[in-house]
Amino acid sequence: MNICGIVTEYNPLHLGHAYQIEAAKARTQAQGVVLIMSGNFVQRGEPAIINKYARTQAALHTGVDLVLELPTYFATSSAEYFSHMAIRLLNATGITTHLNFGSESGSIDDLVHIADILHNEPIGFRFLLNEYLSTGDTFPKAREKALYKYVHNHHLMSEDTAKAIKTPNNILGIEYIKALRRQKSNIIPTTVKRIGSAYHDDNSRTTIPSATAIRKFLQEHDNHAPLSEKLPLYSYNTLENAIHCGEGPIFYDMIFPFLKYKILASTPEVLGTYQDVNEGLEYKIIEAALHAYDYDSLVNKILSKRYTRTKIARALLHIYLGHEQKTFELLNSEMKPYLKVLGFNSTGQKMLKAIKKHDEDLPIIVNIRQGCKQLDDIQLLSYQADLNSTLHYNHLIHFYYNTKMNNEYETPIIRLP
């Protein structure tokens, strides 16, 4: 039986996502789809627009059968670590036969070729990478330049193909393939060419706008009716219901007052203990926070050739959530996988039984209180961070909308027929 894995955020779930689910099932001849989804905070370094259970409902009504949460420490990390943990979870299920992801390229062969160069790091490529890093380029920019030069020098592929490393979905796809290689996984990677607007395109008037454009529209308009034609029906209804109930939307800049307080109440030594706060970034963050009047001004005062906006956003989010670098390194090197279930339908329930049959020792958490009893000390560090992130998220909802949300212990997972 073929089971297709998809890794996503669905922030929110739009028509392009619905197309990918349908195309992935057809391409892999899958009898089931397992989703690895970020929780209440996402890889861009910001809160999700609506909570993870609402997004789980939208996913289950759009063709997914089982939704598992990507641990928060990794859901908010760079593409490499985000992908690494997602693939570990899919491997741990023991039933996932295929991985599908959307890409700007649409060619799995091109992306595999690039991933193999980046994974194997031949001597010529490593030399070029170090050369560009020594000039002060950020790692992503240095890697991009080194790949172009290496490909050109060795006539391995067209430079247009090599440019695939520049676009967001291709970057993630390449990291998925690298993770499959590192973990010696038997899961077969496949891709669907992304349709609709580009990842960063913020124009909501297009037929299939990006998630970025949808979030921008929500932030700028009170009347959301135009989005009814831009989102799958259930995704739109879920979004509107969350808003109607005072449970969102939550935007990236809403963390600013709490973040600024935490920064200014900390010393550089304390800030330097948080994930991704390194290379002296803590001093720039404190200096910027002294004069920042909102989130964007805070980030803009830190921006430089050395620090990209996304890196800064992730570092700030880790400060806000209290993610320590030493904990992240411990989890990344030593944590055994655990599966935290967000929702499932009848097919997903059968998949869970098959997963349990494959590995009886794998913790599968469907009840929060019982979940604590299944985990070892290292897993508990990650699990507690997941629960803590929900407390932070619910606090934002309460502060901005005066809505009291149930905590994780009071929130049942989503079960559909």
Question: What's the gist of this structure?
Answer:
This protein is 54% helix and 11% strand. It is an alpha/beta fold and 417 residues long. The protein folds into three domains: 3-104 and 173-249 and 335-415, HUPs (Rossmann fold); 120-166, no CATH class; 252-329, no CATH class.
Features:
417 residues; alpha/beta; Rossmann fold; eight-stranded mixed beta sheet; two-stranded antiparallel sheet; globular
Task: Explain how this protein is built.
There is one protein chain. The protein is built from 20 helices and ten strands. Strands 1, 2, 5, 6, 7, 8, 9 and 10 form an eight-stranded mixed sheet that branches. The protein has a two-stranded antiparallel ribbon with strand order 3-4. It has 417 residues and is an alpha/beta fold. The model has no long low-confidence stretch (mean pLDDT 91). Helix 5 (108-120) crosses helix 9 (168-182). The protein has three domains: 3-104 and 173-249 and 335-415, 3-Layer(aba) Sandwich (Rossmann fold); 120-166, no CATH class; 252-329, no CATH class. The protein has helices at 15-28, 52-60, 72-75, 79-93, 108-120, 123-134, 139-154, 159-162, 168-182, 211-220, 233-244, 256-264, 268-271, 281-291, 295-302, 309-321, 325-334, 346-358, 368-374, 377-401, and strands at residues 3-8, 32-38, 41-42, 46-47, 66-70, 98-103, 188-193, 339-344, 364-365, 414-415.
